[in-house]
Amino acid sequence: MECVASENDSKISNISEENRTKDDSDKLNEPSECKIPKTDISESKSNEEVSEVIEVKVVYNKKKYDVSAPANCSIADFKKQLQGLIGIPDSMQKLMYKGLLQDSQTLSTAGITKGSKIMLVGSTLNDVLAVSSVSKQDVAEMEKATTVKEPLCKQKIHRKVLDKGVPEDAMPGIKNLKEGLPPLPLSGMLNKHGGKVRLTFKLESDQLWLSTKERTEKLPMGSIKSIVSESIEGHEEYHILGLQLGPTEASRYWIYWVPAQYVDAIKDAILGKWQYF
Question: In what ranges is there compositional bias, type Basic and acidic residues (predicted)?
Answer without folding.
Answer: 17-45
